[in-house]
Amino acid sequence: MESSRAARRNHRARSSRRRPLPYIALAAVAVVGVTAGGTVYVKAHAHSGVVSSAAAPSASASGSREATVEPVTQPTVDYDALLAKAMKSVTPTGDQKVSVAVLDLTSGESATYGGTAFDTASIVKVDILATLLLQAQDAGRQLTATEKSYATTMIENSDNDSASALWRIIGKAGGLDAANKTLGLSGTTGGDDMLWGLTQTTAADQLTLLQQVFGDDSKLSSASQSYIQGLMKQIEADQQWGVSAAADGSKWALKNGWLARSTTGLWDVNSIGRVTGEDGDTYLVAVLSKGSTTQTKGISLIEAAAKAGVAAFGKNGGSSTTASASASASASD
């Protein structure tokens, strides 16, 4: 009897060793990553558990699974092309030429249309004041009461005598050119002797100057920036035209320049400044022109260009409408 029971126990032991284990598979816990070269990898860390065959992904013997996918590339916006497209709505006539540079301070994007050099006329007065303030900073001094008086009338009223006085104080073209080297203006050259209005510049350089006045990364102190900005917001009523045409209401700070050339009888008309557009973004805008038969036609041209420039960056990028002159100005700068 005992031997029979022992035989049955031995039989059950052999049978249990042969019986299949319960259906247990290794469930893969996937950790997904991307290599520096853009290859997606999936590493499987195993733990025990009952899973269906459909839930268990195939893997290599090393426990990892790699697959190459196409990299996702964000579309690149060509703002120079958008600005050029927008400027098709602006139609210079006769000998008119125009150049525009725009920086969207909200997005940091910028674009330039046209690279010709232009006479500054009175927009150089912003550069003169920036030079004066930079020189004062370097000397560790404040502006004198006389200098402040000149600066106010030079910017707010575009007074030429005040500009000539400060032009002498800064050292004429030599002082301007030295300061511009520090400020990053590489395409601007001061006018001969007292001819500060014939300083040569580009729209791109004027945009650089505006960044020094309104931007965060400036060689000018915050106090100097605030000083220039305050004057540019107080332009007298009959000079509130130009880049302000692209602003939402009175959200602008600007300086205009206009000059009838004695050699040709044609007008230089320019405008630089900061505007807040209808889309809520803040823009730095520089518009330069020459070759207009009248000042009014020059104003119409640069206002149309300013509106086109801002529209190129707006919600309806690339669309623009031609502007008409919003105000008249006196015949002399």
Automatic annotation (TrEMBL):
InterPro entries: Beta-lactam/transpept-like, Beta-lactam_cat, Beta-lactam_class-A
Protein name: Serine hydrolase
The organism of origin for this protein: Streptomyces prunicolor
Transmembrane segments: 21-42
Domain annotation Beta-lactamase class A catalytic: ranges: 151-288
Highest taxon above the source species: Bacteria
Pfam families xrefs: Beta-lactamase2
Tagged with keyword Transmembrane: yes
GO function terms (MF aspect): hydrolase activity
Keywords (A to Z) from UniProt: Hydrolase, Membrane, Transmembrane, Transmembrane helix
